[in-house]
Amino acid sequence: MELKSTHSSPVLADPAPINKTRLGILSTLSSSKCIPVPRRKPGKLDEALSNGWLDAMKASSPPRKKLIKGYSVEVALDDAETAYCSWKIKHPSALKSMQQITKRAKNKKIAIFLDYDGTLSPIVDNPDDALMSSEMRLAVKNVAEFFPTTIISGRSRDKVHKLVGLTELYYAGSHGMDIMGPVGVTASIDHHGCVKLTDRQGEESKQYQPAGEFLQMIDKVFRTLVEKTKGIRGTIVENNKFCASVHYRNVDEKNWRTIARLVHNLLKDYPHLQITHGRKVLEIRPVVDWDKGKAVEFLLDSLGFTNQADVLPIYIGDDRTDEDAFKMLGKKKCGVGILVSSVPKETKAFYSLRDPSEVMEFLKSLVAWKKMEDA
Ligand SMILES: O=P(O)(O)OC[C@H]1O[C@H](O[C@H]2O[C@H](CO)[C@@H](O)[C@H](O)[C@H]2O)[C@H](O)[C@@H](O)[C@@H]1O
Q: What EC class does the entry list (predicted)?
């Protein structure tokens, strides 16, 4: 499938070069036209902490843990079931709303966007253990046979590609800052917030700005964080290429403030980096006007799915960073946002699914519906 884009990234000073241009052959791109990268506003540690870091860290806690085959897996409390049921009145099950969704999908081009952790794989203590089942892999493979499908993850593109293991998909790693289609053309955002393109062989082709500095900066931050957190038991620092992730899931809660302080202090030296919060993880990423929502827009444009009237993007995700995509779909009134959660959560998604196993059932139902339609 051809990967095209008419999307004019808001981070580009001159959107013209990317217009009506096939990714990978952007020979008209200029390297000098780039708006300055916004800097994070400086703030005092206490302000930052009281303004929500610690609160946010606590709020990203799972409701309770239960041991399943040696992993602690997030599950909803029985006594929270009532609250969950009333939340679902506002965010109905996508599985139970299949008829409503397929009615909207009829005669439309569907594009599927799937988050990885917590959506295709269950949340577990060790990020390396977050494997998707072979049944899920088959469900994703089948869905991709009918609809262009993107995996959009906070993990690095390489890592999530390896975990999913399907070559026929689009992959958007580092929260959408590193995109690659099945044809092998990649678009990533450099430290100036500019799009950089890489061709099938992995060689850099027509790039908008040199990308080296940004990768180095994240890599340096990653290494510093590994060094600084090695005394804090349970901390895991992950290098996600355009993002460094500090996991505190396995850290004693009394040490969370130390982690927050440490990350805050480090960021004083990096005004072009900022923090976002995920599920028991602090994600250090560039201050660029790019998120999963922008990546979805970019991919839809790349696919030539620009006419909102005959396109239906379906986005399934479980985390805060997925809210940017839900928000974008809501604003454009053009898609189906599905939050994966077994507990009530504030969300811009309209529908919900309880856990990855329901995600799998939903994907299977979508394929079954499409087969019936085509028959
Ligand atoms: O956008 P996603 O695909 O959802 O990635 C977000 C982060 O997911 C991973 O961390 C989360 O899942 C881990 C494994 O279940 C869990 O241990 C951790 O607490 C969660 O935050 C991944 O490790 C991160 O790099 C991603 O940024």
A: hydrolase
115 is catalytic: yes
Map tokens 């990234």 to a residue: 9
Give residue 51's pLDDT. Answer: 56
Report yes or no for ipTM above 0.95: yes
Please report, as a single letter, which amino acid is at residue 154: G
Ligand 1 geometric centre to CA of 64 (Å): 17
Whole-Å CA distances, 339 to 34, 114, 265: 35, 11, 33
CA of 241 to the centre of ligand 1 (A): 14
Q: How far apart are CA 5 and CA 11, in angstroms?
A: 15
In testing the pocket of ligand 1, which one of 279, 296, 320, 326 has its CB within 8 Å of the most ligand atoms? 279
Give rounded-to-5 percent helix, strand, coil for the chain. 40, 20, 40
Contact between 173 and 162 under an 8 Å Cβ cutoff? The reply is: no
**Which amino acid is residue 357, in one-letter code?**
S
Q: Is 161 in the pocket of ligand 1 (CB under 6 A)?
A: no
Q: Among 305, 6, 361, which residue's Cα sits nearest to residue 147? A: 305
How many angstroms is it from 228 CA to the middle of ligand 1?
21
pLDDT 10s digits, 46-91: 555 545 677 777 776 455 444 444 444 455 456 778 889 999 999 9
Q: Whose CA is nearest to atom 13 of ligand 1?
A: 127
Active-site position among 78, 115, 125, 291: 115
C-alpha to C-alpha distance for 19 and 368, rounded to whole angstroms: 36
What contacts 208, CB < 8 A, 6 or more positions away?
12, 17, 26, 29, 30, 31, 34, 190, 194, 195, 196, 197
**What are the residue ranges in the chain where pLDDT is below 70?**
1-52, 60-78, 183-213
Q: Is there an atom of ligand 1 within 6 Å of 130 CB? A: yes
Place of tokens 């940017």: 324
Q: How far is CA 154 from the centre of its chain?
A: 5
